[in-house]
Design brief:
By secondary structure, this protein is of the alpha+beta class. Helix content is 33%, strand content 30%. It has 7 helices and 14 strands. Helix 1 packs parallel to helix 6.
């Protein structure tokens, strides 16, 4: 499908129009950001890995009835996805206390929560993506009660699925954030999962060592992010094709050559 004009560029992805008004192309960038875009870098190969990992997870979610925007992966960096109007809320599910939760509430890092905690943040970089309550969402008509209940139900199902998926490959799912949006197919508005699910949007710790296998490696200067993301992809069994492994290695080699000049 031919790529059209750029519709939107975010911190990690670019959205392009296609000849079908209901479909767009999502391009995964190599840009890495943290602390509300205060820390920035370009990490060669990150977009390739996130594209593959997100495709794998979203494809499996479609098969168990959690509808999302993925249609198919087009190449190493692009996916064909359904056009959605993103709801201006980040939905966060926490299984283990870490990050902002420990700072806000003084809870010891690594505390296993008695049950999954769902949080909401307003998507607004200028305001620092502030935490909001269910009452805020309803009062300002971002969603109605039925829509929010539907999303909460999907979040619990999604968490159960991801916990099992990662536990099976020796990884703890600490927390994750996702986005939902409205599709407008066949004259009906439907809420579906959108954006991506990858080490950029999940906190993933090795089950035995608690080694960080996610974007915290960039946030906290813990070392090679590409090696960690590659480890996640390998454990999920999606880097078995030689061409995909080579593509990431070639990209890294290119980066090394540029720095040496």
């Amino acid at each position: 499908m031919k790529k059209g004009k750029k519709l939107y560029e975010g911190k990690a992805k670019i959205i392009y129009a296609t000849s079908d008004k209901n479909l767009v192309i999502q391009y995964f960038k190599d840009d890495a950001t943290a602390f509300n875009n205060q820390k920035k870098s370009t990490i060669e190969g990150k977009g390739v890995l996130n594209n593959r990992i997100s495709e794998h997870i979203l494809s499996n979610l479609n098969q168990i009835g959690i509808k999302n925007h993925l249609v198919k992966r087009l190449n190493m960096r692009e996916q064909l996805v359904k056009l959605v109007d993103i709801i201006p809320i980040e939905f966060i599910v926490r299984n283990i206390a870490t990050g902002s939760l420990t700072k806000r509430l003084g809870i010891e890092d690594g505390t296993v929560l008695e049950y999954p905690l769902i949080e909401y943040c307003l998507k607004d970089d200028k305001l620092g993506d502030p935490n909001i309550s269910r009452e805020h969402i309803l009062a300002f008509n971002w969603l109605d009660a039925i829509q929010l209940d539907l999303i909460d139900k999907n979040l619990k199902r999604l968490n159960d699925f991801l916990l099992g998926l990662f536990r099976g490959v020796g990884i703890k799912l600490v927390d994750f954030k996702v986005e939902f949006g409205f599709t407008h197919e066949s004259g009906k508005n439907k809420i579906i999962l959108a954006d991506e699910i990858s080490p950029d949007t999940c906190r993933l710790w090795d089950s035995i060592t608690d080694k960080k296998l996610d974007k915290d490696r960039f946030r906290k200067d813990l070392g090679d992010l590409i090696a960690a993301y590659t480890e996640v992809a390998k454990r999920l069994g999606i880097l078995h094709e030689q061409s995909n492994v080579s593509a990431v290695n070639v990209t890294k080699l290119s980066s090394i050559k540029k720095k040496s000049k």
